[in-house]
Design goal:
342 residues, 15 helices, globular
Length: 342
């Protein structure tokens, strides 16, 4: 009986640690954020409303305490977040006609060729890179992506928004102030139908299937490297040289070799979907991937950074079964020995 009581205490402490202490510690290091939302217009609306609500609560608290200095700063902060809310809502409203329009891929080809190939490559259609990565990074701050897979990686909604205004679509308007401009110009001067045509063309030339590595390469490798992966997978240097990407982003983007272990699956999902959820004011843009493409990126990070995951998952149930059988035999053996003593 004493052993059963000890076992019960051990099990209770283990469960408390696993479901109580560990989740609490994790929540302190990585505060909970809303799940990934691939409807970016809706996500921006909700985040703006949350900011306004928090700013309003801060102003109410300042008024309650009758602190003139805090009332002033809270009032200014509330005005700022309301202005941001209006800007975001107006932006997505202006995109809707392009989203609703039925694109013409033939017309879009002419528009993309005339407006995009001066900076972007489309290798699958015979448009090579205009310059090498180092020269492109020196000119733009970051290496422009090849557009051959854009129609696969991104939704019509996000592509329409990005063509219209890259900074607002990728949620980094805060970075481009005081005369700083996004390296890609916005095409808000275009008619909604023209933007719809460009998107239709990009979707028409996109591959139907892409490997996890191909998705990572096209979506992430312009800025991020993978230097410490399983050697069977090979290492991958970022396309943009370190000095250029550091100047462009403000700091050197991290190597992603072990991010699946250091950050975890859930963190990566929400961070890639919108980095502002975890690091408000960060220079990393919202990547804008579809749910399928983002899942492929995270899966690839698992493939290169956690190669033993499948083995662990396979071994886990076997180990638990062994422990149960061992515990039963140990209990029976102990009982038989103590019977001899008594």
């Amino acid at each position: 009986m004493r052993e059963l009581k000890i076992l019960a205490v051990v099990v209770a402490l283990t469960l408390i640690t696993y479901w109580g202490v560990e989740p609490f510690a994790h929540s302190q290091m990585h505060p909970h954020v809303h799940p990934a939302d691939y409807n970016f217009a809706k996500a921006d609306k909700e985040s703006s409303e949350k900011s306004v609500k928090e700013a309003s609560a801060a102003l109410d608290e300042a008024n309650k305490n009758k602190d003139a200095k805090k009332i002033h700063s809270a009032t200014v902060a509330l005005e700022e977040v309301k202005a941001v809310e209006k800007t975001k809502n107006d932006f997505w409203a202006s995109i809707q006609p392009s989203i609703d329009a039925k694109g013409n891929a033939v017309a879009g080809e002419a528009l993309v060729t005339a407006n995009c190939t001066a900076c972007h490559s489309i290798k699958s259609k015979g448009f090579p890179e205009v310059m090498d990565h180092a020269s492109a990074a020196a000119a733009y701050g970051v290496t422009p992506p090849d557009l051959g897979s854009a129609g696969k990686l991104y939704s019509k909604e996000y592509l329409s928004a990005f063509i219209n205004d890259p900074a607002k679509a990728s949620d980094v308007s805060h970075k481009f102030v005081d005369g700083r401009a996004h390296p890609m110009p916005g095409y808000s001067w275009m008619q909604p139908q023209e933007i719809a045509d460009m998107v239709a063309y990009l979707q028409s030339i996109a591959p139907k299937e892409m490997s996890n590595k191909e998705v990572f390469t096209d979506a992430c490798q312009r800025c991020h490297s993978i230097k410490y992966a399983d050697m069977k997978k090979g290492t991958m240097a970022a396309f943009t040289p370190n000095d250029n990407i550091k100047d462009y982003m403000g700091k050197l983007p991290p190597d992603l070799s072990q991010y699946i272990k250091s950050r975890g699956h859930e963190y990566l999902e929400t961070f890639i979907n919108n980095p502002q959820k975890h690091l408000e004011g960060t220079a990393m843009p919202r990547v804008g991937l579809t749910e399928e493409s983002q899942a492929q990126v995270v899966t690839y990070l698992e493939e290169v950074g956690d190669t033993s995951k499948a083995q662990r998952e396979e071994l886990g149930p076997k180990f638990l079964i062994y422990m149960v059988i061992f515990a039963i035999f140990a209990f029976l053996w102990k009982g038989s020995k103590w019977r001899e003593v008594h």
